[in-house]
Design goal:
By secondary structure, the chain is of the alpha+beta class. The chain folds into three domains: 237 residues, Alpha-Beta Plaits, CATH 3.30.70.270; 69 residues, MutS, DNA mismatch repair protein, domain I; 253 residues, 2-Layer Sandwich (Dna Ligase, domain 1), CATH 3.30.1490. It is built from 25 helices and 16 strands. Helix 9 links the parallel strand 10 and strand 11. Helix 4 crosses helix 8, helix 12 packs across helix 13 and helix 16 crosses helix 19. The longest helix is centred in the middle third of the chain and has 26 residues. The relative contact order is 0.09. The chain binds 2'-deoxycytidine-5'-triphosphate. 2'-deoxycytidine-5'-triphosphate binds next to strand 1, helix 1 and strand 3. It holds the Pfam family IMS_C.
């Protein structure tokens, strides 16, 4: 019998499951002789023994910390076992850890709505399961309660020496007079304990969990008692928990907003926010952020568990600390090629296995200048539409880098003093692919494909401000900046990122730290990015949709560099008078932005586009022999047909001709070439 979903969000049961010292556990499963020994996983480079990225709880007891290098760890704990991460393309290869994380996800996903939040973290919405249990087999009716559930920590319940904790927990779970919210949490405790045991049995990995009425509280709780334990936040314990919680520890307050709350309003703990009225917070931070702050001070968060088991973006990165900092373009290009290769490989397998495509390529880098008063200047992040194919990603990534570097170095790049050339050093590079969407399966409808594209989530609701930039070898004017460096996860030494949800704020030390994309507009960001938001929305026009399908087409095979792809054809097609209506609908977007959105993504097509830009909204401008017929041919036949019918009224010159007349199937027939 279907269970009615309670109206109030505090009657939900949400769990946050976090693997314990995850990479270490993966290595210990591979080498069982390491179990129980102080162990750490280190980056592959040899500098001072490599940086530690995961530390076992045995090693933590000896004082070993993740911030240490291998040599330091050995000094603190001579018996420590250091295991190097696997290496591929001269950098860390995290595939083993990713698949290990997927094993866990596939077990947890059976229990309810499941959101993979990072390589080793999952949110579960267990409301239905808890409701069912409460209806059919409430805890007080059970003969016995699982030992693992009885070991739970219940916030607000004191644990004095000599008490029989398990008995107290049993009483709490089985209280007949408990309010419904606590009863549901009691069921959640039993369900999560069972799931954790199942994960351990099937994968050999232990994990910890937080169980609460929302994601925010569940996440806070899961880290409170580790390893291999679970913590529950009853409604009655929320205020106490938040009253002492440092503001910066709260998800999304680790960055500028948290700092500003501290300095401008003297707010040091989440509980301190309670002294301000909602109106006051809104006055200071804007309507949405003000309300959001008012809510979190009370432990209220309406953020839903997203049913998502796959990452929201893919990334590949590497850091170059100390003397390994890159100082020449050729070195940067070498590494960008490696990173792009890995990214492309992951994109291809995502396409093959999950039928998903990504549409935005972003380059992040960290840098410093050799002698510069302006050295605090952040290296700007750049994005552009993503083209599938290793060489295209490599080319685009390098172009993005060069555009960013020009901006970073300033208009001259050379400082007058001493005629010495200003030099730069790159200490971290990463490329990532985001805005990943499903290719609709089992459908031949290109319109459905387009519809799904128009729902591509925009980053604009959070801090992920991305603008497409025109990549030209020479001009950086078209480039825009991803201003908030907080959107850029801090890169660990040999870092490869997989973003399961979009970042809002960095979580210290976890490069791919994933925070939810809860639509919490941050005044500083959202207001500065309104233009971008509008632009992003305009991308849902057919032009962008067409651009995206072009990307899909390009994924299967590298096209000749000299040929404009079907993307260009589509792009130009919609710029014709016949599609003017769409153009006019987007009148809020400055024409230059539109041009940027439709910009080509190679130096060749940049030239073509310049020409296109000049003659925009006039006529088709390609020579017939420039059209790469094979691109069109790669489309599934049904889509080709639909695409033809989609274009016919406007473009097909010989509409009366039958398809069987030999040449009618050529895409060129839909685009009568004009003289240049
Ligand atoms: N990781 C990384 N670089 C970082 C932080 C983490 O490569 N700067 C990797 C190694 C970790 C994994 O991500 O094992 C998960 O990170 P967590 O922050 O969840 O930490 P652990 O799982 O290692 O430990 P804990 O038990 O404290 O969660």
């Amino acid at each position: 019998m279907p269970i009615a979903r309670p109206e109030t969000s505090d009657a939900r049961v949400i769990a946050h499951v976090d693997m314990d010292c995850f990479y270490v556990q993966v290595e210990q499963r591979r080498q069982p002789e390491l179990r129980g020994l102080p162990t750490a996983v280190v980056q592959y480079n040899e500098w001072q023994g490599g940086g530690l990225i995961a530390v076992s709880y045995e090693a933590r007891k000896c004082g070993v910390k993740r911030s240490m290098r291998g040599d330091e760890a050995k000094a603190a704990c001579p018996e420590i076992q250091l295991v190097q991460v696997p290496v591929a393309r001269g950098k860390a290869d995290l595939n083993t850890y990713r698949s290990a994380g997927s094993e866990v996800v596939s077990i947890l996903a059976q229990s309810g709505k499941c959101e993979r939040a990072s390589i080793d973290e999952v949110y579960l919405d267990l409301t239905d399961a808890a409701e069912s249990m409460l209806a059919d087999a409430p805890p007080e009716s059970l003969d016995s309660i699982d030992e693992e559930a009885l070991k739970s920590h219940i916030l607000g319940m004191s644990r004095n020496e000599g008490d029989d904790f398990k008995e107290s927990v049993r009483d709490w779970i089985c209280r007949k007079d408990a309010d419904r919210r606590d009863k549901l949490l009691g069921c959640g405790m039993i369900i999560v304990a069972e799931l954790r045991k199942q994960v351990l049995k099937e994968t050999e990995f232990s994990c910890s969990a937080g169980i609460a009425h929302n994601k925010m509280l569940a996440k806070l709780a899961s880290g409170m008692n580790k390893p291999a334990q679970q913590t529950v936040v009853p409604y009655s314990a929320v205020q106490e928990l938040l009253s002492s919680l440092p503001i910066k520890k709260m998800k999304q307050l680790g960055g500028k907003l948290g700092t500003s709350l501290q300095t401008d309003m003297g707010v040091n703990t989440v509980g301190d926010l309670l002294q301000f009225s909602e109106a006051k917070l809104q006055e200071h931070w804007g309507t949405n952020t003000g309300t959001w702050l008012w809510n979190i001070a009370r432990g209220i968060s309406g953020e839903e568990v997203q049913g998502r088991l796959l990452p929201k973006s893919h990334g590949s990165g590497k850091t170059f600390p100390g003397p390994r900092a890159l100082k020449s373009l050729s070195n940067v290009q070498h590494w960008l090629n490696q990173l792009s290769e890995e990214l492309s490989e992951r994109l291809s397998s995502d396409l093959d296995q999950n039928k998903r495509i990504a549409s935005t390529l972003t380059l992040h880098a960290s840098a410093f200048k050799s002698k510069d008063s302006d050295s605090h200047k952040k290296f700007p992040s750049k994005s552009c539409p993503l083209r599938y194919g290793v060489t295209k990603i490599q080319e685009d990534a390098f172009n993005l880098f060069q555009a960013a570097l020009r901006e970073y170095m300033g208009p001259f790049g050379i400082k007058p003093q001493g005629n010495k050339q200003e030099t730069w050093r790159i200490t971290g590079l990463s490329v990532s692919a985001s805005k990943i969407v499903d290719i609709p399966s089992g459908t031949s409808s290109i319109m459905r494909y387009f519809q799904s594209q128009s729902t591509v989530p925009s980053c604009s609701a959070d801090r992920c401000v991305q603008e497409y930039v025109e990549i030209t070898p020479s001009a950086s004017e078209g480039c825009s900046e991803q201003r908030s460096i907080e959107t850029q996860a801090a890169m660990s030494e040999e870092d490869i990122s997989t973003h399961y949800t979009e970042n809002i704020d960095p979580v210290p030390e976890k490069d791919f730290s994933c925070q939810s994309n809860e639509a919490t507009p941050f005044q500083t960001q959202s207001e500065s990015s309104k233009g971008t938001q509008r632009k992003t929305q305009s991308e849902s026009s057919k032009g962008t949709q067409m651009k995206r399908i072009g990307r899909k087409i390009n994924s299967s095979k590298e096209k000749s560099q000299g040929m404009p792809s079907i993307v260009d054809i589509f792009k130009n097609y919609i710029a014709t008078p016949q599609s003017k209506q769409e153009t006019e609908e987007d009148s809020t977007v400055p024409s230059t932005s539109k041009r940027n959105n439709f910009s080509s993504r190679s130096s060749h097509s940049s030239e073509v586009n310049q020409e296109v830009g000049e003659r925009k909204e006039t006529k088709w401008g390609y020579k017939i022999d420039e059209i790469d017929q094979s691109v069109f041919d790669e489309l599934p036949e049904e889509i080709q047909l639909e695409l033809r019918s989609f274009m016919r009224p406007n473009k097909r010159p010989n509409a009366g001709k039958s398809k069987g007349d030999g040449s009618a199937s050529s895409i060129a027939h839909y685009f009568p070439p004009l003289k240049r």
